[in-house]
Amino acid sequence: MIRTEEMLLNVGPQHPSTHGVFRLVIKIDGEIITEAKPVIGYLHRGTEKLAENLQYTQIIPYTDRMDYVSAMTTNYVFCHAVETLAGIEVPERAEYIRVISMELSRIASHLVWFGTFLLDLGAVSPFLFAFREREMILNFLNELTGARLTFNYMRVGGVKWDVPEGWLEKVKDFIPYMREQLSGYHNLAIGNEIVQSRLKGIGKYTPKEAISYSLSGANLRCTGIHSDVRKIKPYSIYEHFNFKEAIRNEGDCWSRLECRIEEISESLNIIEQAIEQFPKTGEILGKVPKIIKAPPGETYVSIESPRGEISCYIASDGKKEPYRVKFRRPSFHNLQILPKLLIGQNISNLIVILGAIDIILGEVDG
Amino acid sequence: MSGIAKGFQYTLNQLTKEKVTYDYPRKPIPLPDRFRGIQKFHPEKCIVCNQCMSICPTGCINLTGKKHPDPTKRGKIIDTYDLNFETCILCDLCTEVCPTGAITMTNNFELAEYSRDGLLKNLQWLDENDENIREESIL
Ligand code: SF4
Ligand code: SF4
């Protein structure tokens, strides 16, 4: 048998396919990976520590920068935690605006994932199509909040702006358009035999492994486990809507792709229902004092972000700054299974397996 | 192989569709009114309440006030107002808390400079920045 020398290879931190500043040190024997060690922390800004010296409202812009592809959900989890701790009521109209903007964010986030994931596989055109649709969503959110990515839109007790005139109609018109595009994606890439054979059976794990690695989101649901927080522990007004949880059983990269694509169409269903039920009048901000002081105590809330279960823990000692803030960041937890999945794989599957986990480095590093 | 053929067909169908790219920078990019560019400051409206300075999460506003020159009037007027745009994260909180609308957002976002010092904007610069000012107000 011919033996080749083991090679040490550094992937990243400036490699475009690592989707940010993620570094992976791998050992390869020929083309087979024998050891993999992720190195993280290049984007660590110490959000949690910074938050200890900031008032609650001032922390919201920092949450934008954690999961910068879907900042609405991170905005929401923090505001939701403060509202829970301080017992602040949120007006219904604000909740509807929040749900619509969060679901739009989720679609935008999955589109980024879909485009870049297939780009990693070597398919350039799906990326262009996915970003075309994402651009429309970003324009909606830009119109609503004044920013394309770092929205700083949610407030403790509501939202910052009311919806602009004609905005809901535009979003409503977008839904059938997006549905049509989704079926286009099936023709373009998802039904493509090469894509399927590159993904099916790759990066497989069992439900037990998924749970012991504390995975969440599509990474967990692809093994057949019901874990959508919107379903199992509804928050905001999600119980008003009729939607399905995307579940697959195979646990491979292909099933994760299917889960996320299905989530896009379910999000469209939620937005459609939310626009139908949207209250005509009402406040967008509840009764909150100008300087928010949470009563002494602690709280822990979790919601479903596009990447999985994101949670926020706040401990307060009654001051206007929190005593401690901690975020459970799904990308960070999901990434932990990577070394296990990579060992024994061909190097050409590395980027596919990493891509299918869907990490955002701002969230991994916190 | 039918999947690959369908993909080709989908791409071919797109050839006749309308262009979606912007002609930026040759044509200005359309931006919504709420868009956050660099701030505009109205010195005459400012009552030196310091709220913008204390809400700013990155601490990039520095201001000082002076006594009103008219001895019959009480209160202060603004003396210096410096905004360090290097650390401004455009969170929009300063314009949100300002009780008089003295600081507002504009749509101007093309702010590249050759030196870092150019990003330190003073009262005069912020006062003269009076194009594309946001119309909608949160007050
Ligand atoms: S936009 Fe935010 S960061 Fe910038 S000056 Fe205003 S408060 Fe400070
Ligand atoms: S909040 Fe407005 S009025 Fe008060 S100091 Fe700042 S700019 Fe002046």
Which pair of chains has the greatest number of interface residues, and how are they split between the two chains?
A: A-B, 34 and 26 residues
- What do we call the CATH topology of chain B? Alpha-Beta Plaits
Give helix % range of chain A: 40-55%
CATH superfamily of chain A: Cytochrome-c3 Hydrogenase, chain B
Structural class of chain A: alpha+beta
Percent of residues in β-strands of chain B: 15-25%
Shape of chain B: elongated
Largest sheet of chain B: 3 strands, antiparallel
The CATH topology annotation of chain A reads as Cytochrome-c3 Hydrogenase, chain B
The CATH C-level class name of chain A = Mainly Alpha
Low-confidence segments of chain B, ≥5 residues, pLDDT <50?
none
Number of domains of chain B: 1
Number of domains of chain A: 1
Structural description of this entry:
- The complex is a heterodimer of chains A (366) and B (139).
- Chain A is α+β, with helices and mostly antiparallel strands and 366 residues long.
- Chain A has helices spanning 47-51, 56-64, 71-86, 92-121, 125-145, 167-190, 193-199, 207-212, 218-221, 229-232, 253-277, 330-335, 338-342, 350-357, 361-365; strands at residues 6-11, 23-29, 32-39, 154-155, 158-159, 297-305, 308-316, 324-328.
- In chain A, the strands form three sheets. Chain A has a three-stranded antiparallel sheet with strand order 1-2-3.
- In chain A, β4 (154-155) and β5 (158-159) form a beta hairpin.
- In chain A, α3 packs antiparallel against α4 (92-121).
- The termini of chain A are far apart.
- By secondary structure, chain B is an alpha+beta fold.
- Chain B is built from four helices and five strands, in the order αβαββαββα.
- In chain B, the strands form two sheets. In chain B, strands 2-3-5 form a three-stranded antiparallel sheet. In chain B, strands 1-4 form a two-stranded antiparallel ribbon.
- In chain B, a hairpin with an 8-residue loop joins β2 (61-67) and β3 (76-84).
- The chains are: A alpha+beta (366), B alpha+beta (139).
- Chains A and B meet through α2, α5, α6 and α7 of A and α1 of B.
- The complex binds iron/sulfur cluster (2 copies).
- One iron/sulfur cluster binds at residues 55-56, 58, 60-61, 83, 88-94 of chain B.
